[in-house]
């Protein structure tokens, strides 16, 4: 019974986080600001938001001012 309660409690914590992670990262305005850079530097990762974010971070020095401002506003 304890294992079942633990599993239920865990699913209540993990599933909402997983569902939220499936959406796109950033606001529509932030996505628009970084879309050209994502297409330029991260074309092969498009469709995987986490991979694109990682790619943009790796290319931070080359980002446009608009996209760089997005990263800066998030403390990155």
Explain how this protein is built.
It is built from 4 helices and no strands. The protein has 76 residues and is mostly helical. The termini are far apart. The model is unreliable at 2-22 (pLDDT under 50).
Task: For the structure shown, list the relevant keywords.
76 residues, 4 helices, disordered N terminus
Basic shape:
globular
Gap between N and C termini, in Å?
44 Å
The number of helical segments is 4
Q: Give a count of the beta strands, DSSP E runs of length 2 or more.
A: 0
Low-confidence stretches: 2-22
Q: Give me the oligomer status.
A: single chain
Return the string of H and E elements: HHHH
- Residue-averaged pLDDT, rounded? 78
Query: What class would the helix/strand composition place it in?
Result: mainly alpha
- Beta-strand proportion: under 5%
The helical percent reads: 55-70%
Q: Radius of gyration from the CA trace?
A: 17 Å
Biggest β-sheet, characterized? none
Describe the structure concisely for a colleague:
This protein is an all-alpha fold and 76 residues long. Helix content is 70%, strand content 0%.
Secondary structure: elements and pairs:
Layout: H1 2-21, H2 28-41, H3 49-58, H4 65-73
Keywords: Signal
Signal peptide: 1-21
């Amino acid at each position: 019974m304890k294992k079942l309660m633990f599993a239920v409690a865990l699913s209540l914590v993990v599933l909402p986080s997983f569902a939220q992670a499936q959406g796109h990262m950033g606001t529509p305005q932030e996505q628009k600001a970084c879309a050209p850079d994502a297409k330029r530097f991260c074309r092969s990762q498009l469709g995987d938001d986490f991979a694109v974010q990682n790619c943009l971070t790796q290319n931070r020095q080359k980002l446009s001012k608009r996209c760089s401002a997005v990263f800066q506003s998030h403390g990155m």
